[in-house]
C-alpha cells in the first residue's frame, strides 16, 4: 500500500509538472500579446506610451538621477529632492525568466548589472535604471509645467474611479479606530496590519468585535488599510516599497494619534511591515503577533529575491492558490487584466454576489480583495515579499537582539500558500518566539474561522508582563 501511494504521488507530481509547463508556456505567449495591447491602450487613453517591466529596457539619466553615498547606502536623488534607496527596489520586477528559459537552465542576468551601471563623475555617478522605474520617478518629480515627463494620471483609465478607491486625503492611510467607550485615557494601543490584497476589514469584521470590554478599556485598537489597498490612497507614482509603506503607517497612526506603547498583530505580508516597524520603535513595542509570516531563508549561494519569487510562485497549476500566486507574480499584463475585470468593476461584482447569496453572506473579504490597483499590488508583491529577502533577516536579528517583547506566531496546518516551515524559520532566528500551528486551518481561515479564539488568545498575549 505504501509503495502504491508513493507511486501515485509521484505520478501526480509528474502530471502537475507536465500540465504546468504547457499552461505557463501559453501564458508566456499571452503576456507578450497583452504587452502590445496595453501599450496601445495606454497611448490612446492617456496620450503616453508607458514602459513596462516585461521589457529589459534601461535608461541612462545624467543630471536627472544621481547617486551618492550616505550612511553606507546608495541614495538616488531626484530633481525634486525625492530620495529612494536602491535596495528598496526588487530586481524581480524586471528579471523574470520565461518558463522556456528556466527549463533550458539559463540564469537571469546579474542584478547588479541590470539595476545600475556606474560611471565616475566629479560630484555624482550617472545611473542606468530600468525605464519603467525612471518613468515613475520622473513623473513623481515633475513640476506642474513639466510637459516632458508627465506624471501618471491617478486613477488611471484601467483603475476604479469610485470615491472609496480614491479618497480625498491622499497623504494618509484609512485607519479604523476603536477606543474606550467612556473616552478615558488608555495605557497602550494595538495596531492590526492586514496582508496582501486585503484591507482593515480582515480584522474589523473578525477579531475586533470579539475583543472584550475589559481589554478595550485600557487600549485603543487601530486597523489600517495599507497604501494602495482598501480605502487608502493608491498613488500611480509610487513604487510601494517597504520604506513607503512603513512611513505611511507612521504618519497615519503613530504620529497622528500620538501612539506610545503598542502591540502589533499582523497577517501574511503585513508581518514584514510589522517587523520593520518594530525595529524602528524597539522601546515602544510591547508584543509582536505574526500570523502566517512569509519568511523563506535563502540558501547560501542563491540570489535572495529570485529564490523567494520561486518559493512563493512556483508556476504550478496545482494547488489553485499557488497558480493564483504564480499568475500574480510572473505576469504583469495578465495581472493587470485580472485587475481590470475584478477591481475596476468591484461594485458590480459585490452587488452580484450579494444578490446571488440573497444577502446572507458578508462580503468584507471581497471588499479587501477587489479594492486595489494593479500598480499597487504589483509593486507591493515584488518590493515587499520578494524584495525583503535580505532585509527580513536583519529585522529578525534586531528583534532578537534589541527587543525584549514577546513574539507569538500562528500558522494554519493546511496553509498551501505559505508552508508552516516559514513560521519555524522565524523561530529559528528568534528562539524566544512561540509557534502555534492550528490544524485544519489555511492561510485565511487561520483568522476568519477562529476569530473568537484568536481574540481571547491575543488578550492573553497583551496582558503578559515581560
TrEMBL record:
Q: Which GO terms describe its molecular function?
A: hydrolase activity
Query: Where are the residues of the annotated region Disordered?
Result: 101-124
Per UniProt, the ranges with Low complexity bias are 101-111
Provide an example Pfam family for this protein: Abhydrolase_1
Q: Where is the AB hydrolase-1 domain?
A: 190-294
**GO biological process, alphabetically ordered:** cutin biosynthetic process
Q: Which domain of life is it from?
A: Eukaryota
Instruction: Fetch the Gene3D superfamilies from UniProt.
Output: alpha/beta hydrolase (3.40.50.1820)
Q: What is this protein called?
A: AB hydrolase-1 domain-containing protein
Kindly list the organism's lineage.
Eukaryota, Viridiplantae, Streptophyta, Embryophyta, Tracheophyta
The coding gene here is LOC123181404
Amino acid at each position: 500500500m505504501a509503495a502504491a501511494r508513493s507511486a501515485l504521488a509521484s505520478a501526480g507530481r509528474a502530471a502537475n509538472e507536465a500540465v504546468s509547463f504547457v499552461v505557463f508556456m501559453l501564458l508566456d505567449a499571452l503576456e507578450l500579446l497583452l504587452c502590445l495591447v496595453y501599450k496601445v491602450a495606454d497611448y490612446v487613453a492617456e496620450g503616453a506610451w508607458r514602459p513596462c517591466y516585461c521589457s529589459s529596457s534601461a535608461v541612462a539619466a545624467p543630471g536627472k538621477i544621481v547617486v551618492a553615498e550616505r550612511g553606507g547606502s546608495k541614495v538616488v536623488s531626484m530633481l525634486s529632492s525625492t530620495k529612494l534607496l536602491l535596495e528598496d527596489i526588487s530586481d524581480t520586477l524586471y528579471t523574470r525568466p520565461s518558463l522556456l528559459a528556466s527549463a533550458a537552465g539559463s540564469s537571469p542576468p546579474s542584478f547588479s548589472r541590470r539595476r545600475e551601471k556606474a560611471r565616475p563623475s566629479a560630484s555624482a555617478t550617472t545611473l542606468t535604471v530600468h525605464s519603467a522605474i525612471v518613468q515613475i520617478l520622473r513623473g513623481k518629480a515633475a513640476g506642474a509645467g513639466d510637459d516632458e515627463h508627465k506624471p501618471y494620471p491617478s486613477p488611471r483609465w484601467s483603475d476604479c474611479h469610485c470615491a472609496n478607491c480614491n479618497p480625498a486625503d491622499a497623504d494618509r492611510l484609512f485607519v479604523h479606530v476603536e477606543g474606550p467607550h467612556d473616552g478615558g485615557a488608555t495605557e497602550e494601543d494595538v495596531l492590526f496590519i492586514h496582508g496582501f490584497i486585503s484591507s482593515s476589514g480582515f480584522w474589523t469584521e473578525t477579531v475586533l468585535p470579539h475583543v472584550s470590554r475589559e481589554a478595550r478599556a485600557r487600549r485603543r485598537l487601530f486597523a489600517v488599510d495599507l497604501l494602495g489597498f482598501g480605502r487608502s490612497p493608491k498613488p500611480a507614482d509610487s513604487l510601494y516599497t517597504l520604506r513607503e509603506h512603513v512611513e505611511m503607517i507612521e504618519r497615519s497612526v503613530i504620529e497622528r494619534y500620538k501612539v506610545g506603547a503598542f502591540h502589533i498583530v499582523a497577517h501574511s505580508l503585513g508581518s514584514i511591515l510589522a517587523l520593520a516597524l518594530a525595529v524602528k520603535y524597539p522601546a515602544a513595542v510591547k508584543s509582536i503577533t505574526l500570523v502566517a509570516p512569509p519568511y523563506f531563508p535563502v540558501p547560501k549561494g542563491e540570489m535572495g529575491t529570485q529564490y523567494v519569487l520561486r518559493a512563493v510562485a512556483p508556476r504550478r497549476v496545482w494547488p489553485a492558490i499557488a497558480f493564483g500566486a504564480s499568475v500574480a507574480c510572473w505576469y504583469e499584463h495578465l495581472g493587470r487584466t485580472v485587475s481590470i475585470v475584478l477591481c475596476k468593476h468591484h461594485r458590480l461584482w459585490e452587488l452580484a454576489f450579494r444578490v446571488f447569496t440573497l444577502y446572507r453572506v458578508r462580503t468584507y473579504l471581497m471588499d479587501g480583495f477587489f479594492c486595489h490597483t494593479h500598480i499597487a499590488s504589483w509593486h507591493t508583491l515584488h518590493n515587499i515579499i520578494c524584495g525583503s529577502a535580505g532585509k527580513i533577516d536583519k529585522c529578525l536579528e534586531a528583534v532578537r537582539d534589541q527587543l525584549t517583547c514577546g513574539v507569538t506566531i500562528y500558522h494554519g496546518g493546511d496553509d498551501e500558500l505559505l508552508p508552516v516551515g516559514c513560521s519555524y524559520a522565524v523561530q529559528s532566528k528568534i528562539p524566544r518566539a512561540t509557534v502555534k500551528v492550528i490544524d485544519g486551518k489555511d492561510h485565511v481561515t487561520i483568522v476568519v474561522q477562529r476569530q473568537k479564539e484568536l481574540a481571547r488568545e491575543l488578550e492573553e498575549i497583551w496582558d503578559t508582563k515581560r
